[in-house]
Amino acid sequence: MTFLYHFFLKCCEPCPLCVLLLLAAALFRKRKAAARLCFWLAVAIPLVCGNHWVSRALIRHLEGQYPPPNPVPQADCILILGGGIQGRIPPRPTVEVDDAGDRVLYGAHLYHQAKAPVVCCTAGSSSALRPQAEDMAELLEMLGVPKGAIVKETKALNTRQHVENLRSLFRERGFKRILLVTSAMHMPRSMGVFRRGCPRLEFVPAPTDFHEPDFAPGPWYVRLQGFIPTAKNLSEFTLAAHEYFGLAYYRLRGWI
Known about the structure:
With 256 residues, this protein is α/β, with parallel strands linked by helices. Helices cover 50% and strands 12% of the residues. The protein folds into 2 domains: 2-63 and 232-252, no CATH class; 77-208, 3-Layer(aba) Sandwich (Rossmann fold). The protein has helices at 2-12, 14-27, 32-49, 52-63, 102-112, 132-142, 159-173, 187-197, 220-223, 231-252; strands at residues 77-81, 85-86, 96-97, 119-122, 150-153, 177-183, 202-208. The two termini are 18 Å apart. The mean pLDDT is 91.
């Protein structure tokens, strides 16, 4: 079921979907109406999905649901969900991060602000490489978080499994309030899953990795550039679409 879900998600991304539509246009070439429909849909998808104003609206809707608390309250644990970590694989000299790696950076920042005495990393690995939680813990130590303050969960491969694998740990350690650190776009699904799976605990959203921060709009002629499809806009749209599909799937399964 999980494989089919991820396969479906991949096929629904703008680029694979365009390829499928073009293949369908070639397949239905003898049926001119169907071929034209598939062809023009393949043209329309990058024009719409590559539009900055479309991707921006989708992202801001997700990121605006759980704004950062001000001030961030004290808690028993800082929980960092996996993502954005590149393992120490040659020729990389150390663990590296991408955009979502802000999760670990922000988690370390919260620890140094004395917001909680424990930092929990949760992420497994679907390959033969070491679990991502191990890489997250290494990066946290590089950022000055003591090894004794780090707890690792190394089996979870998705958001749902984070809850299933951590529920007993939360109970054993007597945690009551947890700062949940993940990307702002991923926060609605994460909060829904943890609140449903651990109803007796208080989860405080601590979002990071904002793709659409507030800023003053530029001149009208600069804003018009947003209508030009770009690879970056397609990537942003794909990230947002992944979260919307994830929310729909998790609701369908009764996980949130």
